[in-house]
Design brief:
This protein is α/β, with parallel strands linked by helices and about 280 residues long. The protein has helices at about 30-40, 60-65, 75-80, 85-95, 110-120, 125-140, 175-180, 200-205, 220, 225, 230-235, 260-270; strands at about 25-30, 45-50, 145, 155-160, 170-175, 185-190, 210-215, 240-245.
Length: about 280
Amino acid sequence: MTTAPGPAAPGPEASGPAASGPSVVALGGGHGLAAALAAWRPLAGELTAVVTVADDGGSSGRIRREMPVLPPGDLRMALAALAGDEPRTREMATLLQHRLGGSGVLAGHPVGNLVLTGLTEMHGGDAVRALDTLADLLGARGRVLPMADVPLDLVAIVDTVDPDDPQRSRHIRGQVAIAASPDRVRSIRVTPADPPVHPDVLAAIARADVVSLGPGSWYTSVLPHLLVPRLRAALAASSAQVVVVLNLEPQAGETDDFSPEQHLRVLQDHLQGVPLHT
C-alpha cells in the first residue's frame, strides 16, 4: 500500500446527463454506501466514494490476515454500485459480486475480492491504482478510494448489563465483534490512531460541493471516517455541504431505539470542527 498520488488521470468520473451536477463525496461502507452511490449517480457531475477499510470478517477478514492489502469487500461493493449501464459492464459487476461456492479454500470469497487483491499485488501494493484499474474495466460512473492507506481496526467501549454496576463497560476489538455484541456502544476509536490517507481522498474532499455521511452501520461504517484525523481535518477545512443520510431502521447493538436526534448527537460528539448542514 502506498500514499503516493495516483496516476495523472484522475480515474473514472461521473458522466451522462448529470455531467454539470455537483461534485459529491460519499463516505461510508457496505450496503449503505452502495445505496447512497446509486442515489447520487444520476445527480452528481463528479462522484467519489471514500470507503471504510476496517472490515475484519468473512472473505475480507481472511484476505487481510493472509495478504498485506486493504480488506476488499466494501471497496468491491462500491465499485459494483458505480458500474456502467452497458450489458458488458453490468455482467462484469455481477461477476465481481458472485460468491464462490463449494467447501474448499476459495469457498465464500466473492470473485471481486480476489480480483482486487490480485490487482493490488500486481501494482506493487498500490490499492488506489488497483481500484482505478478495476473501475475502468467496469466503466464506473465515479471513483472509489479507501478511507485510509492501511487496514484499520475498530475498538469500542460498550456498556454491559450489570445491575450491581451500571457504569461497568468492556472493550471490544474488531468490526465483526462490535456488530455482533448485544451491548450498547459507548464510544469507538480506530487503530492506528492517525493512519495515512491518500492525497487523492483529501483533494476530492477539498473540491467537493457535497459530502454525504451514511446510511449504514452507524458506529462501524459511518462514524469511523470522523475518527481519522486527516480526514476530519479535510472535512473541517472544506466548503462542502455536509449532509447526513439516516438509516430507515435501527441496527441491533449499535442504534437500538435511536431517534434521529440521537444519531446526530453521536456524530456531533466526534465532529471536532466538521460542520453539519442537515
